[in-house]
């Protein structure tokens, strides 16, 4: 948990996660890097915290959050699976 923020109670954490998932669901036009960054920042996680949760190296997570990044499908799935999301491909 990012030390700049007051820790949330378990109930508040669950409510925040549901809110994050709802926001992502309401923005299907977001790029993967936007979703990755949104999850981490909204849940007040540091790169190291996110790395522990997702089992992805902090450097890889940092690169995933950059526009123009090219993460592997496996890394993308690991991050999304952790938060109950899935990758979809749609016709424009």
TrEMBL record:
PROSITE patterns: HTH_CROC1. It comes from the Bacteria. GO terms for molecular function: DNA binding. Residues 37-90 form the HTH cro/C1-type domain. SUPFAM superfamilies: lambda repressor-like DNA-binding domains. CDD domains: HTH_XRE (cd00093). This is XRE family transcriptional regulator. It comes from Acinetobacter wuhouensis.
